[in-house]
Amino acid sequence: MSARTRRQKAALAAKGEESDEGNGAVLTPTPSKKASKERDEPRENVFLFAPNLIGYSRVFLTFASLYYMPLHPRTCSLLYTVSCLLDALDGYAARYFNQSTTFGAVLDMVTDRCTTACLLVFLSSAWPRWAIVFQALISLDMASHYMHMYATLSMGGSNQSHKKVDSTRSWILYQYYNSRVVLFICCALNEAFFIGLYLLSFSSPILSPSLLQPEPSSIQPGSPAVPAANSLFGSPWSAGALEMARANKIDSTFPWIVTGISFPVMAFKQFVNVVQLVNASRWLAQGDLEARRANRKK
Known about the structure:
The chain is mostly helical. Helices cover about 70% and strands about 0% of the residues.
């Protein structure tokens, strides 16, 4: 083939490409173009999203509050309260930065459940007589939220949030989850009630009769009832650590006010947990019946 013939074919091919482009034909990009397009797209790391970073800080504050829980009620209450308040901030950050993720929703729920459970475990040790009540509250909270989320994912779709509740399923759950104000007040005062009980375990002789016992300073030094300071409760995590902390008395007025105001909301929150558990159970049972009917038709 002559050079002239090759030049003519190349010219015709170029005109054909221009004609295709002019007619709106879609040209398949070459692999190099695809690679460059992928390089131009921004790479996102879900683990470093702003709301998830706030979630990590909540986990850190929770562990810090647990460390101070046996001996330093004021420090523990402060850290625990800040962790709970950040629960509202991470949702705002997710909406503001458009960074709502399934990982973030699960992280938030797991942090909430574990934080409350740890506090109730401490209350069970502070008041063994009421341990069964606190254990029941832990079980109800865990079971209710787990079954609700599982029912939402299996029946409503894998991309559906557990906070999107149809009013036809439950009017109470619809009002609870679709109003941010109601959700925040219920969660905040529910935690406030348990924080108030925690503070009362260090300050109220009515609930903790051991606080009425004489302080070690009122007994003569050298008495067998008062061993040396270095041998008394040698470990801050010993069985007597709580009694040591109670010696540093705090006023019970504020904890009683917080507990009294938040009790009705806490009771409503537990009622919502029961409704949520029953509703999720019925939804799952409905799905089982539909699956059995579908299998019989095959």
